[in-house]
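pinned: reference chain
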Amino acid sequence: MPRSARKLCDSGLYHIMLRGINRQRIFEDEEDCQKFIAVLKNYKAICEYQVYAYCLMGNHVHLLLRAGKEELSKVFKRIGSSYVYWYNWKYRRSGHLFQDRYKSEPVSDDEYLLAVIRYIHRNPLKAGICKELGDYAHSSYNAYAGASEDGLTDTGYVLGIVRREEFIEYHKAENEDCCLEMEESFRLTDKEAQAIIKKVTRCKNQAEFQALRVQDRSKYIAKLKDKGLSIRQICRLTGVSFGVARKDYSR
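pinned: its structure tokens
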């Protein structure tokens, strides 16, 4: 079936989501996050896009970009190739890391722009990773709140729409924002599940889990099931394919 054409937006603004293949983790530690930010900064200078918001989660990334001189498909091919090359070298793995096609939606007016930014910044709260937005280091929220300057986020346009104090209050308000959802809710947060995986398997990262003997991997997947992890969560956090995990999960 041919892919449907993406909607083009006159504003050039797009909400983008990149996620790991099989929804697996794409950031294992602080260094991985810093590397991805460095890649975004590098290609921002080359491709001349603007970054209005971002949030790096364990297995996906949310970005709000205004397109520059290059089409977004080319931009994300550059970004993906650069980060995956480094990630594969670091973890001694090979093959794809990102799902082959990023998700996107056009942002055509300022009202929805603010809603998307709030949705992006509140991802860590929704996942149970932090209790305060300012506590999360891998999003653009603190650049807007004035707590830090990240060298990546273009805050001028948004803070020209709302004052900083209004922006902060807007983020605190109860809302029903729903933008490019991951289409899944979990009994355990990913942070909780990852801690369980490390405790049960004693593997430091996905590469170590994938290198286990088949018998050991099957045993651990069964134990993770008993601990309350779903099959998709196991796939996402360990990097094993859905077919392999489902087979081991049902034993």
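why pinned: The beta strands are 13-19, 50-56, 60-66, 103-106. The longest strand covers residues 13-19.
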